[in-house]
Specification:
alpha+beta; 6-stranded antiparallel sheet; 5 helices; 6 strands
Length: about 130
């Protein structure tokens, strides 16, 4: 199961609202991304400097997980970042295996294709791919 957290401005007020849901299929994730108020978020960010985004997490954030962060930057485009924790390590330092990848700006369609990796690959294989 994959957890999706998203924040967006409430009714154009500039007040961020957080929502979290679980998805089991790639299509459910795509539907959530497509329903996200991209244009509104971009306009409000430009106006107030406060904006939302979508976080997609597979696994347990304290043990082993892959987490994508999708931030709207312009109509149909977003910044995409991936953080992977394979092994937390002793005191979160010694023996820790983690990596981060910044994919930069891409279309929402390209970002959705990257997110499909959460459904097609294990966290360990994603770590090997992006380390």
């Amino acid at each position: 199961m994959i957890e999706v957290s998203y924040s967006h401005n409430k009714d154009g007020t500039g007040e961020l609202v957080e929502k979290t849901t679980q998805v089991t299929t790639y299509q459910e994730l795509c539907d959530l991304i497509d329903a996200y108020p991209w244009d509104t978020e971009i306009a409000l960010f430009e106006k107030s400097g406060v904006g939302g985004g979508i976080t997609v997490v597979s696994g347990d954030v304290k043990q082993q997980c892959a987490s994508y962060l999708l931030i709207p930057v312009e109509t149909g485009k977003a910044l995409l970042n991936l953080d992977i924790l394979l092994k937390p390590g002793f005191l979160a330092i010694f023996g820790r295996k983690a990596t981060s990848t910044d994919f930069g700006e891409m279309t929402v369609k390209e970002a959705k294709l990257k997110l499909k990796e959460l459904f097609d690959h294990s966290i360990a294989s994603l770590y090997q791919k992006y380390k």
